[in-house]
Amino acid sequence: MSEPNAADKLLENFTVDSFTYSVAQVRATFYPKFENDKSDQEVRTRMAEMVSKGLATLEVSLKHSGSLFMYAGHEGGAYAKNSYGNIYTAVGVFVLGRMFREAWGEAWGSQCSKKQAEFNKFLESNRMCISMELVTAVLGDHGQRPREDYVVVTAVTDLGCGKPKFYSTPDVIAFCRKWRLPTNHVWLFSTRKSVISFFAAYDALCEEGTATTVCKALDEVADVSIPGSKDHIKVQGEILEGLVARIVSRESSEHMEQVLRDYPLPPSEGDYLGSSLRDIWAENRSDEKQQIKALLESVDTSFLPNYMDWFGNDVADGHSRNADRSVVSKFLQALPADFCTTKLQEMVRLMTEKRFPAAFKCYHNFHKINSVSSDSLHFKMVIHVQSDSAFRRYQEEMRHNPGLWPLYRGFFVDVNLFKNKKGIAGESSQEINYGSDTNAKDGLANEDANLMIKLKFLKYKIRTFLIRNGLPVLFKQGEAAYKTYYLRQMKIWNTSAAKQRELSRMLDDWAVYIRETYGHEQLSSFSYLSEAEPFLEQYAKRSPKTQALIGSAGSFMRDLAIIEGSRGEERDIIPSSPTPMVKDEGLIVFFPGIPGCAKSALCEEIMSAPGVLGDDRPVHHLMGDLFQGKYWGMVAEECCNEPYSVILADKNAPNRGVWRQQGTY
Q1: What is the 8-class DSSP label of residue 527?
Q2: Which residues fall within 8 angstroms of residue 267, CB to CB, at 6 or more apart?
Q3: CB within 8 Å of 405: residues ≥ 6 apart
Q4: Which of 206-220, 328-342, 604-618 has the lowest mean pLDDT?
Q5: Rounded Cα distance, 561 and 281, in Å
Q6: Higher-scoring residue by pLDDT: 323, 286
Q7: N or C: which end of the chain has fewer CB within 10 A?
Q8: Any long-range contacts for 493-499 (C-beta under 8 Å, 24+ apart)?
Q9: Is the pLDDT assigned to residue 426 strictly greater than 60?
Q10: What would the pLDDT profile of 530-539 be if each residue is shown by its tens digit?
Q11: What is the pLDDT of residue 646?
Q12: If you ran DSSP here, which 8-state letter would residue 447 be given?
């Protein structure tokens, strides 16, 4: 059985009768998505109350800017948020494998490969899944292109008992230190004073904070600080997406301190000397299939012995699009062989009957290809939630039916449909003790056990929400609609009035610049930083105030030409807003587009009379006829070199676009 067409034929001929059973097992998943019913302020108040009463501890972690990647062993599979067997999971496996080798070191030689094989065997035999934030420069721009390509472990999930059981953060750190996997920076706050100090620190830094200032502030107020093995500042940069604060067990601080004593931070054994992700990406950029193949071939065979999830079983395409509806309907009609299957059927049935915005995509499971027959079919089911409204509606269903299993993010299920005329003696009619939930064990009510808040920083939101997400509005509806869009966003965020004025000037300049650069062709949001970073870098150079507004920009962009979408050619990138001139600001003098109006003569007269402008600012005469190449680029460079100087732009500047692009210094 090696061809997808044969598998489709088997599915088509597979009928559900009284002897048809189904076994469904969760193969990979991330935390459920819970929406707070309370406002952010109410959540913060409740968190402080719980800690002050000794009921819980507040845990805070950094939010790295990347994408969800899950790994369950080479047979269990590698998964992105809603897909597998593609370029995203190939990049994830490559980065994880590379980091594994870097952690264990080339000095281990064959022992390093042995460790990789042990790691895979451990995940497979214990049916576990590791969730990570995958941060790269090649899978789409977020707030800042990272300095390195890396992963950080965010969750470890035990799937062996049916219902997913998530490790506590101390247990995650212990697991990662045992296997030398990268960990995140975590802070614990176990007193009311420290919790109040944390929220005060965030409020003070939410508009100005960068990774350096935020980490320093939290280190000063936290009761326990556990630095990550990957330093955000070194591997991602200063632009920090945000913090995740959640309620955890009141014993977390003691548990964490015990873990840190038992599992000291492992040493780094050395650097891995293979090709980097960016090298492989650039060398194969014209063909995605070749990129996938090159990435997978660069992973040690002990870590990835085959490429079935990407290329199937000696065939090109393992996905049967015609099987989706048929597999789901037969799965729901079949008798559940165990309690786990019963609960998963209950979830899928509820979502389909109530028409939740979700898709149940099914694929042939090539890892089980040798077990497929006319009486036994194996599939991978991807539960793809297409709108956050589905999570909110599902939470409401759980309030009425507490026995429902949660709706997880990144949700993948192995499904086996089979015939058994002897019947199944087992668990389908009764619930099995799958282990108590950590928070429930600590006596917290469900709404408190899931209490969590995400706190994002303005410098990240400028880039993602205001610039990247505003591109469709700007290019399709124009600058006025874009201004309405970004002002509405800032109002929702309660951005201070002063910061709104600063951002409005910068975003107006961005709109003019990018529209003049691209015309009616919309800049790709996938690689928008190719244009936004140089713009922000130049804008930041105007003054200390604009530098504080932007934070960090442009430092590594010149080394990232591998990203598709950048136009590449040199352009003038010094826009500015028409703000009133004061004596400690620079000035550009423009001339109308009228040939022969004595521009040069007037400029020479000004240059011959020092102090004619009434102050001691340096005056420069830049005569257009004497410059070869891009004149306005030279003007921009001069302004950056001496931001408080007066520039006599001795060249026709006939339109508003040129005036606004250069602006006042």
Answers
A1: T
A2: none
A3: 163, 343, 344, 346, 347
A4: 604-618
A5: 11
A6: 286
A7: N
A8: 493/458, 493/461, 495/207, 495/458, 496/207, 499/207, 499/458, 499/549
A9: no
A10: 999 999 999 9
A11: 81
A12: H
pLDDT at site 654: 54
- How do strand 646-652 and strand 587-591 relate by DSSP bridges? parallel
Q: What are phi and psi of 496, to 5 degrees?
A: -60, 155
Q: Collect all residues with Cβ–Cβ distance below 8 Å to 230 and sequence separation of at least 6.
A: 150, 152, 182, 183, 184
- Output the six-digit token pair for 13: 């001929």
pTM over 0.85: no
Distances (CA, A) of 547 to 201, 363, 463, 642: 21, 50, 15, 15
The arrangement of strands across the sheet holding 242-249 comes to: 224-226, 186-189, 56-63, 242-249, 452-456
Contact 249, 442 (CB under 8 A): yes
Q: What are the residue numbers of the active site?
A: 63
**From CA 336, how far away is CA 344, in angstroms rounded?**
9
Using CA atoms, how far apart are residues 285 and 265, in angstroms rounded to an integer? 37
Structure tokens belonging to residue 473: 């509005």
Residue type, 123: L
Q: What's the pLDDT score for residue 659?
A: 60
Please tell me the distance from the alpha carbon of residue 75 to that of residue 83, in angstroms, as a whole number: 16
Three-state DSSP at 237 gives coil
How far is the C-alpha of 265 from the C-alpha of 244, rounded, in Å? Answer: 23
Burial class (CB in 10 A: 0-12, 13-18, 19+), 547: middle
CA-CA distance, 528 to 507, in Å (whole number)? 15
Average pLDDT, rounded, for the chain: 83
How far is Cα 311 from Cα 85, in angstroms, rounded to an integer? 8
Three-state SS letters, 167-205: CCHHHHHHHHHHHCCCCCCEEEECCHHHHHHHHHHHHHH
